[in-house]
Structure formats: C-alpha cells, structure tokens
Fold this sequence. Notes:
Arc Repressor Mutant, subunit A, three-stranded antiparallel sheet, 3 domains, 389 residues, alpha/beta, elongated
Amino acid sequence: xxxxxxxxxxxxxLNRIFGFEPKIxxxxxxxxGGAAEVFRQTGKEISxxxxxxxxxxxASAITVSACESAAMELERLHGEGCSFIGLGEPGYPALLLExxxxxxGLYFKGTSLPEYVFDQRPQIAIVGTRSMSYYGRDWCRxxxxxxxxxxxxxxxVSGLAIGIDSAAHNAALDFGLPTVAVMATGIDMIxxxxxxRLGERIASTEGCALITDYPPGxxxxxxxxxxxxxxxxxxxxxxxxxESKIKGGGMMTARLAGSYDRDVFALPGRVDDPLSQGCxxxxxxxxxxxxxxxxxxxxxxxxxxxxxxxxxxxRAAVTEQYSEMPDEEREDLxxxxxxxxxxxxxxxxxxxxxxxxxxxxxxxxxxxLECDGFISVDLLQHCSPRLDK
Length: 389
C-alpha cells in the first residue's frame, strides 16, 4: 500500500491506536525500525512483538484500514489549516522526547511552522485553578509581563481552560509573547466553547499554536484532561502553579513536571485560602520554589534580566508619588490606595460605600491611581493593587 511509505501517516495511525499507552506504540516503532515498518509486518510478527499486549485490542487494530483512515484524516486536516507532527520529526518539541511517555504525534494548528514555534525559545507552563481569584489573575499577568520584559522571550504554555489557563494565554498575547494551548479535545473542537474566540486568536497569531494528541472529533471528558496534563509538563523547562486546591489539574501538572525533573514554581497564598492550599503544599514539601520577587523568578527561569522591580512598600510608594500635592488630596489618594490594597477586587461602588465618598470623587481618584500604575481596574470596575510598576 502506498501509505505504508509515509512515516507521518503511519505515526498518525499508531497514535490513534496507542493514544493512552504511547509507550507500547513507541516500542513497536523501535522494534521494527519505523512506524511504516510496523504496518508491513504480519499479524504473527505484530503479536509476537506485543507479547502480553497481543491479547488486547492492539494487535487487531494495526491494519491497512487504520493507515488509510489516517491518510484521509491528514488530507482533510490539511485543508482546514491543521497538520500532524510525528514523533522525532522537525518541530516535535525536543523536551517532550525526554519523557518516558511522549505521544507518537501531535496535531497542530497555527500560522507558523512547528519548528518556529517550538525551537526558537524556552517554553514555560503557567497552570492553575478554574476558580481564579483576583490575586491569582493579577499575579498571573504580572509574571507574564515580567517575562515579556526579559532579555530572552519565553513561549507561554497552558491548557485553554477557563481561569488561570485563559489568563495566562491572554496575558501572553497582550504582552507580545507567543503562547501554545494544549487541548484535551480534537484539534477541531475548542473546549470550553466560551474560549472559542481565544482559541482562534491563538491559532491566527504568529508564533502561537493549538496542539493536541487527540484525534479529530474527540470530545472533552474527564480522563482526557489528565492525559493532556503530561504534555503541558513535558513540553516545558519549568511549570508555574498560580493557584490550586489540594486536588486539581494544576497540581497534577506541577507534580508531573517534577517527575520529569523540570523546575516547578508555586505562588504562595494565605493559609486559610483553599485556592492557595495546593501551592502552599508543594512549597512545604520542597517540590516547588515559591514565587516572590519577579526579577528573581525571571532569572531562575533562565530568561536573563528584566527591568521590573517589586514595590516593597506600597504605602511609601504612593506617598512619595504624590508628595507635592496638598495634604488633603494626598491623604485621599493614600486612603483609597490602601483600601484597594486591603480589599483586592473591590468594585468602585463598594469603594464609595467603604470610604463614604461620592462616586465622582472615587472615580477621579481611581483614575489617578490607575494612570500612575498603582492599581488596575477591570471592565467590571473591580480595583486591584499592582504589585509592580
């Protein structure tokens, strides 16, 4: 059969068969000297090579029709702007090859070649909970912003979920860094649907991409996310856990990264905050380094120097900034700034009630603090302190 000579087609076929046990598929490829060679073997030769696994569905699945289906699938995907990177081919993430269970291939959607996406810069994973707090959102953006100002630019990798994943992807795009979303579905199905626009933005931006090892048509089910997490951890030289409960996908990704002997960082939080308990646990177990000073984080990620510096004393910085203002105006700015610092995510109308001021006065002060870089205000008028300027 003509497709037997196409290594990529045969790797794609084997990936569909051995998706949840890629080590077995890789064993066959190495045993016979290539994916195409696997499909040239007789049923007995395949069964003998599989050994105990020959009694499973695998032996009967390695057929001519499997290869034909893979060829038609790749032809269709090509017309939709997608491709397939086989194990060991140019553009296959180098660090993923170091893992014990790399997928036999990755489906890829983007405007740049896979080699340009994965071979040009270090990959850093940013993961965490779907139930993101203002604290987690702000620190996620601050970390990405710090990396964007580093001498060496990173590729930000995450999982396209709501919460921290989406915040990481959006921050990367906003600050001019490339980002890759590792999907738990087929390349033709963005999940969750609400992230459809984000997925399209990633796929259409130079240097960015959507990737998955799941065949087209694969829907989002729980077990798929667990399998997806190993790719996020395996692709990257370091993983940063922003927020997580004791159990969660982010925790699993961080622990997988540690098992791959990669650097792991975690953002510490309040001991009574469930969203920080996972991060605090990893730090306590010495499985993750705490995130604190952003310049130090960037340096430890191997990205070189950055100009971002931590505001060590928020009150003093605000006081110094407005030192030449009349005392009453300076004190009002300081009161508002400290109230926002103490109640991260406070809405403007809540700030009015807390301070007993009119909306126009609070709005004017919030605008001043935002313009001078002390706070950030989102579209819903929630105010949060910026930890860096």
